[in-house]
Design a protein that fits this description.
The chain is of the alpha/beta class. 45% of the residues lie in helices and 17% in strands. It contains eight helices and seven strands. Strands 3-2-1-4-5-6-7 form a seven-stranded parallel beta sheet, with helices on both faces. Helix 4 links the parallel strand 4 and strand 5. The protein starts with 8 loop residues before the first strand and ends with a strand.
Length: 248
């Protein structure tokens, strides 16, 4: 299928690795013009060279970084945005401080909200916004309380924007990845192994047993769906949440 994105302009946040990079690769391979972001300017520029695009620094946990990014963007036209942030620290209620809650709120909810608000005027008619959340929008993940609280909030934001922006022909959807082979998943597996006094092998086997397809997903599988949702081929899809989790 031709995604009809050749020459169109997309902003892919958090593209230095993992799911963000997979989305940038999927769109770039279809001829899209991609701008990628990373928290470090040098990393953003380095990653952008892979896609013959532009790399800009952006850290949603820092409101000054968000403001600086919007000023630098200066209302350049966009056909789509993949809104992607890093994951919050692990922990249950007893483990988390007020600073942890404030940092997660800024990183996962306030920063992305202010960014999308500031980029609204850049979106062309027919544009698509895809928020990357987590399977925690459907059910809580043990020891990831911050994600369990703020990821569903992002999904609620996306559904609200889908309604209010529909008359301008701007679509808004959410992707909720399950277990995908990224550095973040390996970090969480290690933390669980230490917390539960298990080996990494035991943790991984337990997770695989919970996935009907019996395997961890690949970033490319996530990236292909994201590219479709960002493309004109998904022109009648908005306000939806798509779980990519092998049936989890």
């Amino acid at each position: 299928m031709d995604l009809q994105v050749k020459g169109k302009s997309y902003l892919i946040m958090g593209a230095s690795r993992g799911l963000g990079q997979a989305v940038a690769e999927a769109l770039s391979s279809e001829g899209a013009v991609v701008t990628v972001t990373s928290r470090q300017a040098e990393t953003a520029v380095k990653v952008a060279k892979r896609f013959l695009g532009v790399g800009l620094p952006l850290d949603t946990s820092d409101i000054d970084s968000v403001s600086g990014f919007l000023e630098a963007w200066n209302a350049r036209p966009l056909d789509g945005i993949f809104v992607n942030t890093g994951g919050p620290r692990t922990g249950d209620l007893e483990d988390l401080t007020a600073d942890d809650w404030t940092a997660a709120y800024q990183q996962l909810l306030l920063g992305p909200t202010m960014l999308v608000r500031g980029l609204k005027t850049s979106l062309n008619p027919g544009a698509s916004v895809v928020f990357n959340a987590s399977i925690s929008v459907r059910h809580p993940i043990p020891a990831l309380l911050l994600s369990n609280v703020f990821r569903p909030a992002i999904a609620a934001l996306a559904r609200s924007l889908a309604l209010s922006w529909a008359q301008q022909n701007i679509r808004v959807n959410v992707m909720a990845p399950g277990r995908i082979a990224t550095e973040r998943i390996r970090e969480l597996e290690k933390a669980q192994a230490e917390r539960d006094h298990l080996s990494l092998s035991e943790v991984r086997q337990a997770h695989l047993a919970s996935i009907p397809l019996g395997r961890v997903g690949e970033p490319e599988e996530f990236g292909r769906l994201a590219a479709f949702l960002l493309s004109p081929q998904a022109s009648y899809i908005t306000g939806e949440t798509f779980v990519v989790g092998g049936g989890l």
